[in-house]
Structures are given as structure tokens and as C-alpha cells.
Request: fold
Amino acid sequence: MIAADRPVLKVEGLARHFVTKDFFGREVHRVRAVDGVSFSVAPGETLGLVGESGSGKSTTGRLILRLDDPTAGQVHFEGQEITGLGKGQLKAMRRRMQVVFQDPYSSLNPRMRVGEAVAEPLRAHRLFKTAAERRERVAQLFQRVGLDPRFAERLPHQFSGGQRQRVGIARAIAVEPKLIVADEPITALDVSIQAQIVNLFMDLQQEMGVAYLFIAHDLAMVRFLCHRVAVMLRGRIVEMASTEQLFADARHPYTQALISAMPIPDPDRELARQRIFYEAVTPPQEAQLQEVSPGHWVLSS
Amino acid sequence: MAPLLQVRDLTVRFDTMDGVVHAVSGVSYDLAAGETLAVVGESGSGKSVHVLAMMGLIPKPPGRIAGGQALFEGRDLLTLPEKEMRALRGGKIGMIFQDPMSSLNPVLTVGFQIVESLRKHIGLSKSAAWKRAAELLDLVGIAEPHRRVKQYPHQFSGGMRQRAMIAIGIACEPKLLIADEPTTALDVTVQAQILDLVRKLRKQLGMAVIWITHDMGVVAGIADNVQVMYGGRIQERGPVRAVFRDTRSAYTWGLLQSLPDHDAPAAAGVAGAHRLVQIPGYPPDMLRPPLGDPFAPRNRYATERCLTEVPPLVQAEGAAPGHLVAAWYDLRQVRATQGAALHGATA
Reply:
């Protein structure tokens, strides 16, 4: 069982609050974007992070990547606490933790040839010695993600959305990371392309043993490709379980509402749908995650 | 009874620096009063552009209507003077878009924007219009409507703005509501509420709906008929159950196959146990549209003829009445002989 291994990522009591202060420096308002979030991801595992917009799922991803600093809590990556790391140490860590964003276009320099963009992380981590070696590595990476290596000379705008996302993935896997934080990686893609990219994620996991933190709102896709799922609501995890447990036996009313609202591409099932309604409320501060069965955690209410 | 809307051979082009974009080519269909039609497609399919063109909302230039008619209650929308078109938009034809912030005026209260529409299109008095505005917000499920009518769009949450947009869209009890991906940016729970709302309203008001989406789950939940577009053309059209159960276009079939199977066990895809059935290749470049069937280059069942000649949209053989397909191949044979192999081959 995967969970028995030392986790590649362990998050404890992670919080990010946005505080508004008045003229005298007194706190007038506090938004708890992320509030006491704890979970771990095993090597080679995919943990889905779902919830509505504003639930804190993307902020959680940014805190783990150190693109934002937490108000409280710790992030252990491969056993090392990384929230206090300086620039040099962060760079070493970033070789093993990568990110794939929703919009590949905004994360690529429009004037940089995509081959260069893929070579950039290799250069930053001195993973080639000669130009020939670099070209060969880039060509391998292009092939690995299903792009024609001859496309390396092109600029990002000469690609379709699906191709650009492949470039983004090639860049992320260039340094052979142990963890990829994927923030809505297929949301912006055409439906006919989504399956290609999802299959690519799965293949890479099998070959490289990379773990994913898969931040998404497409529940059908999450159900298909995640080992475990954590459901966030207003900065808190309200339920976390194996994917089977979560979809068969959701306990938190918000999870139940979410699953019951999932669109199903079948007219007869849509007709028979029984919706569960839940007026979302901010979970009380003192609420704790409780283990209702092995590996299945639900926030007490 | 004549259909509410008759679209005939609608063709839209964009003249750009790089050449002519073949956005919509020869689109024809009828929409009956009270019917809900889902138009499915992805970026570049022409699904949004064709309705924007009908409503006189594409910028000209670079856009131009290269041919066709769109008869609404017998009048051709494509040749209607702008003044009459303005009277229709927001009047007999309501519209809601994906991004409410781009259609709501940020410096006017939500109530004022509804009132403006009510006074202009149905000539309500000021006090009657304000009363109706609050009723409409209540109808779309916005709590405390009397307080909310006086608020500005930025004081509304995303889901509430979308509801406010719907309130404006239906304010004048339109005969036709056009909804362009209105729930795509919303969370699933909010999306489900909006779908419930539209289902309820169309019953109450007897309005026809054109619902543009890329989500087959939403289509299954809302449509009477579905029309699948690709490369500026209609690939398949018919009653929603017929299209889902007796699919005749390879593109529609590819889309349905590529979705995770709801009957498969949870986590079926982990550890590479199952793969999604993927459609190979990429959408066409509409500056250089394929010569024949636009989907042919990505269709493993395409014949020689598919590559060179555009198939007409005709009644599919042995299918439900009104189930049309544009295909030179017969997907029934493919499904019978290769359906099982398809899953195996790509797994």
C-alpha cells in the first residue's frame, strides 16, 4: 500500500490569512483563505484537491510551491521542512517539485522558442554539458510528451492549447521531479484534447513514479484518475478519503452535495438525478477531522 | 406551425491579416417554440459565432455574413435594420453569456439594469418596473431581492451575478433565450442550481432555449435536441436520447468515448489500469479548413471521400426521425465491428 511509504509531501496545519488593518494597525478584517490544512501525498500517488472557487485549493497549491508564504503551518517535502528555506535551498527543492498551470500560454515566454523553454530548467540545474546534449534531451522530452521534436524551433503562439500544455508538461518533467502540483491542468483545453493530456499524466506517473497534487473541479476526471481525494470548503478540508470511499460513502453534507451535482453524460440518469442541497457554511474553528473508517476523514460539525 | 427560428445555410467569415477564417459554413436548422436545443462544440467549432452572427453581434469588419438567412418569426435577422435588432435583443430574444462581468454594467445597480430593459422593451412604468425587477431576482433565487436590486454587480458573488444575468435575460419574457456557456465558469453545485432554474423557467414562460456548451453532461441534463458542431459545420443533430444512444457521427462518438466512464469503478485510471479513449490529433486551423469533412483528418474511420467532399447533413439511416448526420461513413458498422476493439486497442 502506497500510504505506508514515507510521504513525498506532508502538509501540517497550513494556513494563509489575509488581514486588513486600519490606520492604527489594528486588525479590522481577516480572510482565512486556507486554515489549518493537513494532508500527505505518498510517492507515485495522485491526491485530488477539489472544492468550489474560493475554497482555498489553489492557494494551498501556491503555498506548497512557495509561491506564497503561509501564515502558519509547515510543509515537509521529502522529509525536509521547506517553509523557511532560503533562495539557494529553494532552487534545489524546485528541481524535485514542479508545477503545471491551467493556462499554458501565460506560463510560457511568448518570444522564447519552446525548445528553449523546455531547456531552461535543465540549464538552471546544470543537467547538460554541451549544446548537442541539450538538443538531445529536449528532443527526448518532446517525444515523451507526444510532440514532434522539430517543433522545438517554434514560438508558443504557433501551437494549439493542447500542444502548449504538452510543452508545459515537458518543462515540468525535464528535471525528473518527485511531485507535480497540477492546478486545473485540463480545464482550459478543448474536450477532444483533455483525454490526451490525462492519459499523458497517467503514463508519466507509471514511468517516472511522480506524485501529483491534482487541483481540479471536474469531479468525473478526479474520480477517474486520483488515488485519494480531499474536499475543501472555505479554507478547510471537510473530507478526505480514498477515491472509492469518497464516491461510495461521502459523509460530509458538502461532499454529498458536490457529488450529487456532478453532470453525467447520460440523459436517462440526468432525468433520474436526486440532488442533495447544502447551504455552505464556514466550518466552525474548533471542528476537527475525525477518522470514520481507516483512511476516511470527515470534519466534525 | 412554423418554427420559431429557421436558420438556412448560414455562413460567416472573418477577414484577417493571415487570411479568411471559415468560422461557420452552411449551417441550417429549425427551432420550435418552447424547444431546448443544446449546441455542442469546442473552440473554433462555430457554436458561439453562429448565434452571435444571427444576433448582429460580431464585429464587422473583420466579420461578415457570407450567406444565408436566420428567420425569427418569419423576419430575417441577418438583414434587419439595427434599430429593430436592438428592439429584439433583450426583448423577444434574451441572452446570457459566460462572463456576467462583461455584460453587466459595473457602474449601474443590478436593479436599474433590469428596469431599463423592462421600460424600453415592454414600456412598464418606473414603479412597476422596479417592483418587477425585485420579483425577477426572487424568481432566479436571489435572497432579499428588495435589498439586492439596489446593489452593484461587484457586491454579488459569481453565482449571483450569473443569476442576475439570467434575470435580465428573461426580464421581458422572451420567446427565445440564448445562453452561451453560462455555467462553464461556475462550480458544479451552482451550475446545477442554474440548470434547475432554467428548466423551471422555460416551463413557466414557454420559451425556447439555445444552450451553447462543451459539456456533454450538461447537454444530457437540459436539452430536448442536441446539435454537435465541428469546424464550422453541423456534424450531427437530433433528439438528445437518440444522439447519445445511437450516435452516428464519429466526432460525437469520440467526445462521448473520451469521457471517464461513470459505470467504471472509482479510481479506474490509477496505475495505468484504464486509459481514456482519446481523439487523435488537434482541431483544424480554420484559416485552412480541411477540404472535405472537417473531422476527417482526425477520424480513423474516414473514407477517401470524407477527405475530399463535404458530406451533407441528412436523416441518418434507420435512426429516429429528425436524427441527422453529416457523414460518408456508416458509424453503425464501425460500432458493430470495431467498438469493442477500440477500447482494447487504445488501452
